[in-house]
Amino acid sequence: MARPFTPIGQPARLALGVSFFALFFATWAFFTLGGFVSKTFLADPWTMLRDGWVLLTRFDFLTDIGMTVWRVLGGFVMAAAVAVPLGIAMGAYKPVEALLEPFVSFARYLPASAFVPLLILWAGIGESQKLLVIFIGAVFQIVLMVAGQVGQTRRDLVEAAYTLGASDGGVIRRVLLPANAPGIAETLRLVLGWAWTYVIVAELIGSSSGIGHMIIDSQALLATGKMIFGIITIGVIGLISDLCFKALNRAAFAWTLA
Amino acid sequence: MTSAGDAKLLIEGVSRAFVGPRGEGTVALADTDLAIATNDFISILGPSGCGKSTLLRIVAGLDRPSTGRVALNGRVVTAPGPDRGMVFQSYTLFPWLTVGQNIAFGLRERGVPPARQAEVVDAYLGRMGLRGFEHHLPRQLSGGMQQRTAIARALANDPDILLMDEPFGALDNQTRGLMQELLLDIWERDRKTVLFVTHDIEEAIFMASRVVVMTARPGRIKADVPIDLPHPRRYTIKTTPAFNALKARLTEEIRVEAVAAASAG
Ligand SMILES: Nc1ncnc2c1ncn2[C@@H]1O[C@H](COP(=O)(O)OP(=O)(O)OP(=O)(O)O)[C@@H](O)[C@H]1O
Ligand SMILES: [Mg+2]
């Protein structure tokens, strides 16, 4: 048996990661180009890339991407702006926790996608409906995760701060916030990933732009190449935003790595 | 012995009972009286679980006594404050702050001007042998250096009394010996008032002007032994007959309690 937890070098790590992508595409190409799957149901990788090129050059797909990105970020930033302070308050103050925790725990299980029809009634099919879906999907998750984080703050550090003469405000500003900032940033990174799945659902119904809208449009034309290109675009953007977020967190919170 | 009148820190009838998860009570600390004069260095010696940390936390204001009261300079303690500096057994430096920023924490909290903060930090970096590590993060330091920083952080506030809860408990013997000398040196020069918890008999005698022995749980003060060894003390004093006599006496006192603690489970 191989020894668990044996470290691996950076080049080997990269090579292994890339090789699985290669394997994935090779398998896909094998089944589609080899004629094992009907072209109607699954386009081959080259068709997908060609369709993607057509989308980008002739159908202004970049605007769709831009719309989707802005919806995700808009809804996510709104959710974070509400949820982070609320989560901190819940984690730090027991009465706030007692007041909100039961409701938020319930609300987090309300599926954001199920709100789409309702939100269309309330907010129409404009941008506010899309933003609200993201907002609902993200806000309760962030509140609970941040509250959990803050609740776990090392008590010995809090006590040390008090014995050094810190006021309650000082403890919040100079212990609670810095101690939990990396965890909160990590929570936001995670939830941003989930937000990508909500936005597509919002765009599948009653939308005239966005990646999700393009995918639904292509379905009517059986353009599986375009649909797959749309799906892969989401994956790539999600991966890029995740890597950026990770790099940002590492740079901002170097003390957690030292 | 210190009379209640001129005491810097006065502990009067302090006890502490905890209520367990099933409603059962545990008396961690039985009625305790202790008076500490200015410039005293008191070591509190006792078996594990006898309530030493509990007593220190009550003095620090981090815990409330079930009965009795603690007064510093005649004012009753109700909450933690910078007049009582605390050094914990576990490493409690703020991991996101550098050594220098950790030392300056209390000063900054009190709004001391940055220039003055820098002066104080620089002075303690020098005294604690931390020069060159000012910009290091705590986790880049050895345990001994972390505790030196923690002591500097407490002292930078210029507290009336320094409370230390087995600060060298996690250190190896050599480092521990050096830290004892460093702390003793600071005390001999600054004449701080110190309340030092330990279960190491040599450590208790070496630094203290008085050693207070506590009983097994529920902790009570059982003996109060003045240590009249001359100052300045060097580590060589640990092998003198006078030191050994004190050690023998305290070993006997504490042994009885350790046996009691062990049999009580
Ligand atoms: N928050 C708490 N709740 C319940 N029981 C507690 C609490 N804190 C301490 N105790 C109990 O009180 C007793 C004394 O604890 P304390 O930590 O003061 O002992 P100690 O003398 O410092 O021991 P050690 O030398 O191991 O550090 C122990 O039996 C402990 O289990
Ligand atoms: Mg203890």
Describe the fold and architecture.
The complex is a heterodimer of chains A (258) and B (265). Chain A has a single domain (44-251), classed as MetI-like fold (Orthogonal Bundle), CATH 1.10.3720. Chain A contains ten helices and no strands. Chain A has helices at 10-33, 45-58, 61-92, 94-107, 116-123, 127-151, 155-163, 168-204, 211-220, 224-252. In chain A, helix 3 (61-92) packs antiparallel against helix 4 (94-107), helix 6 packs antiparallel against helix 8 (168-204) and helix 8 packs parallel to helix 9. The radius of gyration of chain A is 23 Å and the shape is globular. With 265 residues, chain B is an alpha/beta fold. Chain B has a domain at 4-83 and 161-167 and 193-264: Rossmann fold (3-Layer(aba) Sandwich). In chain B, the strands form two sheets. Chain B has a six-stranded mixed beta sheet with strand order 6-7-8-3-9-10, with helices on both faces. In chain B, a hairpin with a 2-residue loop joins strand 4 (67-72) and strand 5. In chain B, helix 7 packs across helix 8 (241-264). Chain B is globular, with a radius of gyration of 18 Å. The A-B interface holds A 156-157, 159-167, 170, 174-175, 178-179, 253, 255-256, 258 and B 60-62, 79-82, 84-86, 88, 90, 92, 94-97, 105-106, 109-110, 137, 139-140, 153-154, 157, 163.
